[in-house]
Amino acid sequence: MTLDSPKLGCTDSPVRHERGQKAVFCGLTGIVWLHRKMQDAFFLVVGSRTCAHLLQAAAGVMIFAEPRFGTAVLEEQDLAGLADANAELDREVARLLERRPDIRQLFLVGSCPSEVIKLDLERAAERLNAHHAPHVRVYAYSGSGLDTTFTQGEDTCLAAMVPTLKPAETAELLVVGALPDVVEDQCASLLAQLGLPSVRFLPARRSDAAPAVGPNTRFILAQPFLGDTAAALERRGAKRIAAPFPFGEEGTTLWLKAVADVYGVSAETFEAVTAAPRARAKKALAAHRGTLEGRSLFLFPDSQLEIPLARFLARECGMVPTEVGTPFLHRAIMAPELALLPAGASLTEGQDLEAQLERHAAINPDLTVCGLGLANPLEAQGHATKWAIELVFTPIHFYEQAGDLAGLFSRPLRRRALLAGGSAA
């Protein structure tokens, strides 16, 4: 374990770097929300039966029902290199595309490193593109738990798409990160009211609406876990707009203000557009502040949402972050968030599970945000917990969701108070 002081932000506390046992889902989980977002896409996981069972359990559906994802299971002879896995993959893809002519984007998702599955999926994607384009565009990315954690599956997916986006000369704003459709519509409406008619989203709902990228493109991240995607866009010449993330009233306002400043939106227009939704968000947050204010908070590393959420809970809900763990700390992307995070919060990058559990026990926080694997044992020990995975599957961005976001954290405390026979505040 090593310690260093962050160069950015208002906090002078060191960042604890840990490398040890982890408790987090792998990047395959991202398929569960990505396949719903991209309506003409199909995600074909190339891997073992274990991976098929994971997706089946995580999605809560039978994988063989073929919504917009499935698994090409590698048998023992494939893993041993005794069969021509490339020929088998080509054959299965051909069968899939014949059966599903609605597919326009096909993602080959590796569940293990290529050394294990004996397949180079990037080369396979190139080969399949030569055969199936332009009707179908084939991509490849890794969702392996050895290469990626929970939300990194979306990052590697979007980063794989960026090199194929058409070049653009026009000046457009690109909002990056998969958002529920209703939230994306709210975002688009706010930006249009600010006077930005040319706004695109990555990922787009359908392939024919995919954005173009060029040196005049400005992009802003809607999700904090997209470091590889941001780097890929910058290699295409696009310029990132730095901002806190749009969680809560303050975060949303600062996110929109960063865009408004770049595009020269007047203060009067900005106030006119944001005044009413800001007031609604503040009113919704007030209903939860009484439950959350003054309560201590501990976040285990899981989704890379931890730092923005800690900022939101501290500044808008009055909570006291003790330890804020995150799988990776991307300094440039997190700079605006670190500048707003209370100085007393302890930051941890990576995880050594046993050591972190010891610190958690010593702190004994009022509320713990953690993965599913830790929640039940901690609840059995008497701790109130919030599943981190719920924060990814629930609409939480922008003004209209501010109260719902606070409610995700107030609900466990109210439930515990009711079970104890006390006040639910």
From TrEMBL:
Pfam families: Oxidored_nitro. The gene is bchN. GO terms for molecular function: oxidoreductase activity. Keywords: 4Fe-4S, ATP-binding, Bacteriochlorophyll biosynthesis, Chlorophyll biosynthesis, Iron, Iron-sulfur, Metal-binding, Nucleotide-binding, Oxidoreductase, Photosynthesis. It catalyses: chlorophyllide a + oxidized 2[4Fe-4S]-[ferredoxin] + 2 ADP + 2 phosphate = protochlorophyllide a + reduced 2[4Fe-4S]-[ferredoxin] + 2 ATP + 2 H2O. Its EC number is 1.3.7.7. Residues 26-374 form the Nitrogenase/oxidoreductase component domain. InterPro entries: LIPOR_BchN/ChlN, Nase/OxRdtase_comp1, Protochl_reductN. It is an enzyme of class 1 (oxidoreductase). Binds 1 [4Fe-4S] cluster per heterodimer. The cluster is bound at the heterodimer interface by residues from both subunits. Protochlorophyllide reductase is composed of three subunits; BchL, BchN and BchB. Forms a heterotetramer of two BchB and two BchN subunits. Transmembrane segments: none annotated. Component of the dark-operative protochlorophyllide reductase (DPOR) that uses Mg-ATP and reduced ferredoxin to reduce ring D of protochlorophyllide (Pchlide) to form chlorophyllide a (Chlide). This reaction is light-independent. The NB-protein (BchN-BchB) is the catalytic component of the complex. [4Fe-4S] cluster binds at residues 26, 51, 112. This is Light-independent protochlorophyllide reductase subunit N. Its cofactor is [4Fe-4S] cluster. Belongs to the BchN/ChlN family. Pathway: Porphyrin-containing compound metabolism; bacteriochlorophyll biosynthesis (light-independent). It comes from Rhodobacter lacus. The lineage of its organism: Bacteria, Pseudomonadati, Pseudomonadota, Alphaproteobacteria, Rhodobacterales.
